[in-house]
Amino acid sequence: MATATSYVVQPELTRIAADLGASLESTSTAAGLPILGYMFGLALLVPLVDRLPARQLVPIQLAVLSLSLALAAIATNVYAFGAALLVSGICASTGAQMSTLAGKHSPTETRGRALGSVTAGISAGVLFGRAVGGGLADGIGWRAMLVIVAGACLVCAAGSRAILPGAAQRRDQPYLATLAAMPRLLRTYPELSVAAVSGALWFFAFSLIWMGLSLALALPPLNLSPTVIGLYSLAGVSGIFATRVAGQLADRFGSRPVVFAGLALALACTFAMAPALSSAPLMLLALALFDTGLFAAQVANQRRVLSIEPLQPARFNSVYMVVYFIGGSLGTALAGTIVSLFGWPAAAVTAAFALTAAGALYMRQEPRGAD
């Protein structure tokens, strides 16, 4: 639910711009602020899971998320709208906190399965956030839609208050000192740096493929409508179902085999997608398997990260997710340039190079206990 809030307004940008009396460009920028806020949340809020009782931290964060969405719903100008969405994005990092808690409180032998379940929820939020937000906004308006989503976040806050553990956490050093020390973790723990950089490479490939495909489908000679292009995202449903299975396989065989298998599958799909732009059945099949491979790799890789220091995994997960997210942002940013200058096949080949580099980097790392 928290993850979905970063995407619910995106289908309604033209109506929102008209209601706020703003340009489409400024409204689009405001709608992108939750993603920027999410990066701040990864760096600043995820480490708090190791310091504060989850029963207090998560409900408060979800309540602030709800309040920020309600403020966005009553905004009268694009600046207030954007500021509220920025705060909502920061609080939407609850998903990454849930991953940390799943890894922290699950037995070692079922850690991957637990992470798979949480990752499935996060993936569903990414996939269905736009669809649900657009559908509600079409029926009742975007302001009422945001109020309903805000209410759903309050329900989640109440549920987390009742269910999550409330034990006090160990605090080895002040919060600011913890934040300052986090970049050094990449140098101190080679397994973290390998996992983070390789994950960033395949998230770069993932973002490049999906953003590049959206652009390529809209350009001549296909000139598909936004509605038809949006239907392609349904191919990602298979990745949601793959996450739990991938977690179970990682628990049984270790993280490395699952990561390598996922990357190999995704790599094969990038080569299949390069000449398949005009063949919808082949493209949809390749997209489904591509997502399956990378979702599986993500679950196994995150299991590896959370196993580095199981009693205090939040700072490791925070560093990992920030680096991972930077890779995805670069893929999104470069997609337009690559597709417009060199065409869709060049985007697929670039993604293939990134996946190959991720696999090569991962292979160089010596396997350890949870690998």
TrEMBL record:
What keyword terms does UniProt attach to this protein?
Membrane, Transmembrane, Transmembrane helix
The molecular function terms of the Gene Ontology recorded here are:
transmembrane transporter activity
Pfam families per record? MFS_1
* Database matches in InterPro entries: MFS, MFS_dom, MFS_trans_sf
Q: Where are the annotated coiled coils located?
A: none
According to its UniProt entry, this protein's organism is Myxococcus stipitatus (strain DSM 14675 / JCM 12634 / Mx s8)
**Which residues are in the Major facilitator superfamily (MFS) profile domain?**
1-368
**Does the record carry Transmembrane as a key word?**
yes
Residues spanning the membrane: 30-49, 56-75, 144-164, 192-217, 229-246, 258-276, 282-299, 319-338, 344-363
Protein name per the record: Major facilitator family transporter
